[in-house]
Fold:
Amino acid sequence: MTSNERAEHDDPAGASAGTELWALRLYVAGRTSKGLKAFANLKRMCEATLRGRYEIEVVDLVDRPELAIADQILVLPTVVRLMPMPVRRVIGDLSDASRVLAGLGIERRHAQ
Structure:
């Protein structure tokens, strides 16, 4: 996981079928164990529920501290759902899958 790393997953069939893309942004501060755990947890949940329909952008606030103020980030790690609207936030290492899925509005019916 590097600054501004993106985990993207192609699904040409899903795109043509009109499924919505979930755009998520994970804010971390350096390569800490907590940030790495949050990324791994988030990716695992997305693979289980949104396979082929999600994008995770990792923003390292050590490299881009100005985004903490601009994006109203107070605690790290924080994941922000950018799309679909409305914007939603979940903080922590994202280890409680049911809390994260509920907080981001990802329901089990999105599983493939």
